[in-house]
Amino acid sequence: MGQCKCTGCEKDITRDVIYRNGRCPVLNNVVYDIQDEASRCKNGEIGLVECDSCGLVFNVDFNVSDFDYDDNYESSREYSGVYNAYIDEVVGQLSSFIDKTWQILEIGCGQGEFLKKLCEKTGAKGKGYDNAYKGNSPGTGGVDIAKEYFAPENEKQCFDAVILRHVLEHLGEPVSFLRRLTKSPAIKQGTLLIAEVPDLEWIMENGAYIDITYEHCNYFTKASLATMLADLGFGIENVRNVYGGQYILLSAYYGRTGKDYEAGKGHLGRRQYDSARIDSARVRDISFVRDSGKLSVWGASGKGVVFLNNLPDEILKNIEYVIDINPNKQEKYLPRVAKKIFSPDVLRGCVKKKILVMNGVYKSEIIRKLSEIGANADVIAWGELR
Description:
Blueprint: E1 3-5, E2 12-14, E3 17-25, H1 35-39, E4 43-50, E5 57-59, H2 81-94, E6 103-107, H3 113-122, E7 125-129, E8 143-146, E9 161-165, H4 174-182, E10 192-198, H5 200-205, E11 218-219, H6 222-231, E12 234-242, E13 247-254, H7 275-292, E14 295-298, H8 302-309, E15 319-323, E16 341-342, E17 353-357, H9 363-372, E18 377-381
Parallel strand pairs: 6-7, 6-9, 7-8, 9-10, 14-15, 14-17, 15-16, 17-18
Antiparallel strand pairs: 1-2, 3-4, 4-5, 5-11, 10-13, 12-13
Helix pairs in contact: 2-3
């Protein structure tokens, strides 16, 4: 069993694996032009361990050298009206205390959609970093984006706000990274930090093994996230669930006294970790696909990739189509299972198709799209499976 170091509090803990999965592409959001290349993509091992001290759950088998987030990485959700409405909602909430004098840094900004909207709304200036950025014309709309990984020690500018949306769950050593950030010129007394991560409690309550991926090496509860940041000198302002409960959104100010936050709240503890719920969901899904005959899956991102890769090879033949509205994914192949990704138009005029929607927040949007293309389909969200 041995010992390992917690990536959240950096204490030595027992290496007691509570969840294991070896059917995991290293990168969920890389799609391939050639089917054979997709089937031969790099695989990763997941071995989750939970820290008894801070409550963080992390992948003890994670290897940061497996990764290279380049412009083949395609995680944009800007093609969804539902997701854009969510982003607009968060931007609207943040804009109430950000003004045009602010300088905003977003680390891991993707294609800069969030940062651009926030700066457009507030008049603030923005700087983003992402090695997967596909643009080549920085400086538009008061936002500069660098196609590179962010290194705290190399940043010379000081910022009024720092945004980490879906970054901390990807970092092999999040505390080390944040500590370097606080010691860099980028952070000053009173700098606002906005962090958004998936919520482990939501994953456990829903048996959502489809949200346990190799890319995500850390799994936070509200308490473990708040505790980690408070220990680094951030005063916690607010911690809440967003996006249908799936995500945690936290705001904090560096070097200021924050609101009291009960450190133990949200800590699952080993005895409360419900591996049976995770395991039963996987068994249920295999039975569902086996018994459904021809079935289409809507969603070629994290959830869909994990779902398909957890199906036995002999069951995959029941998946007729994998659908995604992102045109940058269409006509390409998913990692490992090498299933082709289709536009919704492949269902145009279809009759009595069965469609499994991987993320229920998009179900109503998908039903409207099916109506537009004259598709007659039975639509069920993954969370509705029993």
